[in-house]
Amino acid sequence: MEPAGAPKAVNQRIFKLGLSVETISLYLLCCGMKESGMPISHPNLVQKWNSTEEALERSLGELASMNILQTENPATGVERMYVLTPDEDWLIH
Question: What is the set of domains in the chain, with CATH numbers?
Answer without folding.
Answer: 12-89 (1.10.10.10)
